[in-house]
From TrEMBL:
This is ABC transporter ATP-binding protein. The lineage of its organism: Bacteria, Bacillati, Actinomycetota, Actinomycetes, Kitasatosporales. InterPro entries: AAA+_ATPase, ABC_transporter-like_ATP-bd, ABC_transporter-like_CS, ABC_transpr_LolD-like, MacB-like_ATP-bd, P-loop_NTPase. CDD domains: ABC_MJ0796_LolCDE_FtsE. GO terms for molecular function: ATP binding. Keywords: ATP-binding, Nucleotide-binding, Transport. Residues 33-271 form the ABC transporter domain.
Length: 274
């Protein structure tokens, strides 16, 4: 567990709507993502039981655990797609439970990036258009923050994000014309293009060979380390977890172990104890 801070920043962001539209003015004063005592049950089954996590900006956290330990529920709660029964989830200081569905959707679109194993790129759109999609879907483009603080048109921002992931020359290509690794790079570019506070990744390298997987994880690692988003990654792969700053292990919905910058061997050893 990343440890709950002793003190919180003094003020929560202004109005709910303003908070949903943009990051708080003192963005760095808030954890990028905070789960405070999050519990979630389905009927009598407790999927999460009092999970505390604090991710400062730029922190890369891996979450591991056996099947059924609560990883997907954790991701869903962090994304505001599922609602905890107890506890709170805040993104950059914005309490997701305080928002209506429309504003929560806005937070997901503008302030959270998603990278999944099964990509979800739209086959009829080019790489550039896929990456620009979150910006094009935004009702107010002015509310989205450019990578360098300057407002840029969505397609130009998409090109910059594609360059960031090493695909400056494949912007016109369609997903079917790209390799699996290249498609996952496009997915990373799409997650980065809104300059989100948090990236939520679910088995982002599960479908890739080990070398390509390390390259894609390296992109996420570099993007977060360079003052970018915090990354919360669910993975079953000890080599992937070893790329993170910290790995937490879930057992029956509780964080039962934490390793700092673990080796793949240390991760395997801890998994065996879960
Ligand atoms: N919608 C639901 N209805 C009922 N039970 C659920 C639901 N979602 C999750 N659960 C239960 O909650 C527990 C945690 O599930 P979760 O999917 O979060 O685990 P997981 O660690 O992601 O598993 P896996 O690695 O297999 O994807 C499991 O016992 C699961 O059966």
């Amino acid at each position: 567990m990343l440890g709950r801070p002793r003190t919180h920043p003094p003020a929560r962001p202004r109005t709910r709507l303003a908070a949903a539209r943009s990051a708080p003015a003192g963005r760095s004063a808030y954890p990028a993502l905070e789960l405070d005592g999050v519990s979630r049950s389905y009927g009598s089954r407790r999927a999460l039981a009092g999970v505390d996590l604090v991710l400062p900006p730029g922190r890369f956290l891996a979450v591991m655990g056996r099947s059924g330990s609560g990883k997907s529920t954790l991701l869903a709660c962090a994304a505001g797609l599922d609602r905890p029964d107890e506890g709170s989830v805040t993104v950059g200081g914005t309490d997701l439970a305080a928002l209506g569905e429309r504003d929560r959707t806005r937070v997901r679109r503008d302030r959270i990036g998603f990278v999944f194993q099964d990509l979800n790129l739209l086959p009829a759109l080019s790489a550039r258009e896929n990456v620009a999609l979150p910006l094009l879907l935004a009702e107010e483009q002015s509310s989205a923050r450019a990578l360098d603080g300057e407002p840029l048109a969505p397609l130009r921002r998409a090109d910059r994000a594609l360059a960031q992931v090493g695909l400056p020359d494949r912007a016109e290509a369609y997903p079917g014309q790209l390799s699996g690794g290249q498609r996952q790079r496009v997915a990373v570019a799409r997650a980065l293009v809104t300059a989100p506070e948090v990236i939520l990744a679910d088995e982002p390298t599960g479908a890739l060979d080990p070398v390509t997987a390390q390259e894609v994880l390296g992109l996420l690692r570099r993007a977060s380390a360079a003052g970018g988003p915090a990354v919360l990654m669910v993975t079953h792969d000890p080599a992937a977890a070893a790329m993170a700053d910290r790995t937490v292990f879930l057992t029956d919905g509780r964080i039962t172990a934490t390793l700092e910058r673990p080796s793949p061997e240390a991760v395997r050893g801890e998994l065996a104890r879960c």
